[in-house]
Automatic annotation (TrEMBL):
The keyword Transmembrane helix applies. It comes from Limibacillus halophilus. Keywords: Membrane, Transmembrane, Transmembrane helix. The chain crosses the membrane at residues 7-27, 39-57. InterPro entries: DUF2842. This is DUF2842 domain-containing protein. It comes from the Bacteria.
Length: 68
């Protein structure tokens, strides 16, 4: 495994951990909100993490695509 891939996986782990902590902390504020707001929040936060994660993985696998 290349150093770039290892760093990418580490960054992904750090990002997802931080994102999860932030989402759960903010969800605490929505505890008394209606079910519609909670549905919107959890639906949005369940999709938002995908874009940065894909960017991190694209960056970490960039060297592999050059070799093909």
């Amino acid at each position: 495994m290349s150093a770039r891939k290892a760093l990418g996986y580490f960054l992904l782990l750090v990002f997802l951990t931080g994102y999860s902590v932030a989402v759960v902390s903010l969800a605490d504020l929505l505890g008394l909100a209606g079910w519609g707001w909670q549905l919107l929040y959890y639906g949005t936060s369940g999709l938002v993490w995908i874009y940065p994660a894909v960017k991190i993985l694209d960056w970490s696998h960039k060297a592999d695509r050059r070799r093909l």
